[in-house]
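Predict the assembly for these three chains.
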Amino acid sequence: MIAEIGLAVLWMAAALAMLQLIAGGLSLRPEGRQLAALVRPVAVMQGVLVLVAFGALVTLFVTTDLSVKLVVDNSHSAKPLIFKIAGTWGNHEGSMLLWVTIMAVAGAFVALIERRLEERTLIATLAGQAFISLGFYAFLLIASNPFARLQEPVDDGQGLNPLLQDVGLAFHPPTLYVGYVGLSIAFSFAVGALVTRNVGPAFARAMRPWVLGAWIFLTVGITAGSYWAYYTLGWGGWWFWDPVENASLMPWLAATALLHSVSVLASRDALRAWTVMLGVVAFSMSMVGTFLVRSGILTSVHAFAVDPQRGTFILALLAIDIGSALALFGVRASTVSEGARFSFLSREASLVFNNVMLCGILGIVLVGTLYPLVTESMGVKVSVGAPYFNPVSAIFAFPMLLVMAVGPMLRWRKDRLDGERARRVSLPLAACGLLAVVVLVGVELTAHRISLLPALGIAMASGLVPASLLPLVGRNLRRTPFAVWGMVVAHLGLAVALFGMASESAFTTERLAALSIGETRDVGPWQVRLDGMMPVAGPNYTALEASVTARYEGGAPIVLHPEAESFANPPGTRNQSALLTRWNGQLYTVLGEQGDDGRWQMRFWWKPFVPLIWVGGLMVALGGFLALLGRVAADVRRLVAKDKIAWRRMRQGR
Amino acid sequence: MSVHENRVGENQAGENRGGARMRLGLWLPLAIFAALIALFVHGLLRPADTSVASAFVGNPLPQFDLPAANSERPGLATAAFHSGKPRLLNIFASWCVPCAAESPQLAQLAQSGAVIEGIAIQDKPQDLARFLANNGNPYAAIGKDDDRKVQLEIGSSGVPETFIIDGRGVIRYQHIGDIRPEDVPMLLAKLKEAGA
Amino acid sequence: MKHKSAFALAATLALVLSAPVALPVLAQEGAPSAPYAYRQLPDPDQEARAKALMVTLRCVMCQSQSIADSDAPIAGDMRSEVRTRIAAGEDPEHIRQWLIQRYGDYVSFTPQVKPITWPLFAAPVAILLLAGLLLRGRFGKGTRT
């Protein structure tokens, strides 16, 4: 019964989306004005209905309804509850339902609370949102019905690939997903503003919290995914420039650029066409990413729900949605004036520069990821990996980081760096630059065999850490707005992550060893000893567990337990690494196979400061969260004040 | 469409020559996007091929002299391929399931007069003996390649793979994966071609 | 990261008693016996050179992993080949070319400068030019008004 309700409700939601699109579209013409009143309530109702449908699917998974095909294919009655719930979106149909759910619920929120934007633009935005949603409803209802029943119920489900039964699955995909789909709101705002030729600060302020929110989720999702890959894949790598990773990085880069340009538009009324463009690009990168992951046209180590036919459907949606938006842009953007002017030395200028650099990195990642497809269409297979991406994106990243240090110190519109301003801005920045140079020279002189990029990274990060704190100097910290705190924390986080990346790349010690029980090896500052082997059994696997004692520079012993696990159903092996984290780095241990001589293959890495990569990533997200909090709080205050005024007026009988 | 728009724009704002160029630039994103879609369509239409073909086809076999993989057959050296008669070189292993699946086809090829040389990858003599007892032994010789030295030398990336070597020891063709019944006539034809 | 319970312990005991053959980590494919698959070169300079090369070579059996990140047997044998050659004093780029001769450009994560890859190297230049054009347009006008 629940499945039927879910499906029926989904059809109703699709019908409402159709109504939302038609009413919204017609109401933009003079003769259809009356229809405008329909759009907001319909959008809210659509959101509620989809939420009910999604709830129905979650319920089916939680209760393991074995007459539903999707549940049988992807779940099992004996699975822990968290993996039952995660199983809802751990498959193609469920994840598409999650996609429309986020989209419709976000649309409902916009309809419910957005009051600042001109009504016509808002209606156009909601119509745009309905337009994209309709494509995904069609995809769900025609080609991937999540509620389909089996002819005959079966005894139990097939379970989820045990390798995916990790907390990583419960959090990484939906987080990334909320980010991907959240950008659809930014896209719809951009389309709405283009349709009604109303690109201005009000539009930017309406769009900003959605961009911020989506961007926070993207940041957390990428950070979590990187750490998941790091501890699961067993070779200590944390970023591989794999197509699927790049597919998540590209929307993030576009959203980062959008986030900054939307701020310029909101506070300075500049960069109008550029912001609209980025709004379209950011969501198109989400869809390109989804397409690349699902279609399987590029080989990836993280392939998910690959099916070329679904790829075709997503590609069609991509072509229709983004193609029409870009065509609209071509037609309308020339009527959007550029907005306010600013000088070469101003905060706007630095933001524009970094926007362009971010788009440059995005271009490089896009070209590098897709180039193998281009050559394959000519019959040649090539690979593009880190040796291309690292240096070429650095061409854009390093200037961007430099400007990132300077920009927040500059004034809007026009700044002059002489007299008092020189003392306040130039001197501290010069000191940070000097620190970076000193660190660079120091690293080059002391470290053995360190290559250029990591050395530059360490130097840059050392200069950036103090530089990103400079905007707080001379402020009353208690009265500093959340938005400023957010910016400082996010920029600091980027510097911290950069330091972690560069340090990992420069100072990692690798030790591969075949050890007998009782043997000791040095791994950088650590002495590790293989104490013993123990067979253990997990819930659905058996494993050999090694006992390894590690001492940091002869200090107290700490025991680690790396495991080699074998799964019977489906068969497979997994090396579960054991990590030991200290303030200055991480010891990474992996148990391999037993050699013919009875010794155990073990792999050890000492990675100085590697956790800073993910700590930094989370700081970036936290910065976004603080900024969002600041914006939302300001909006709420404004709403409350408005209500108070209205109430007073009412009481005074006006 | 874009050209029309530009003309209108130029007429209206004749003093701003950069404007028209700018307006053309506004269509650049759509052009890039169209190229992207074309690329994706092409990628979807192309049959998925994840195998890595050897780039070494057309080159002479490298010098090698592999010891016998077990007692039933002698080892394999490059010299065996200089007899003037084309041969098949089958790379296999007892631990590989598709290798067992292709054994009837290998037997059929051997019956049709093809000489099949084998290279066993990382195999143990007793495993190999069991494999040959179960699946038949169509090989003239079986070399033992424990470190994949020869496999890497000829650009082979997995098991099973079958190469056609002509009478002068030059690699003429590579077949990736197990030999299906429908592949047999094709391989025989290629073999004949290599002998011509 | 790992959860073990009393149930797991009981299961362990049952397993040890009933199926000792299941205990050795089962290798589905032949174990790499090549000398340097899982062994480093004694000379740290040589090892560093080998490592720097290995992270840029693609494992031909895996899904987009380098031979330095893979447990696939052929990746181990390729590592051993690389280390052996480095130890013999061969130039890393020479080894890369040797592999490209056999597996094509696919085996190298470092794109080779060839006619078919020129757009890849032109891309940063083109993007820089485009960026320059965009920035010039904006600031050029900005100073005029």
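Residues 416-507+615-629 of chain A form one domain. Strands of chain A lie at 509-515, 520-523, 526-537, 541-552, 558-560, 563-568, 571-576, 578-582, 585-594, 600-608.
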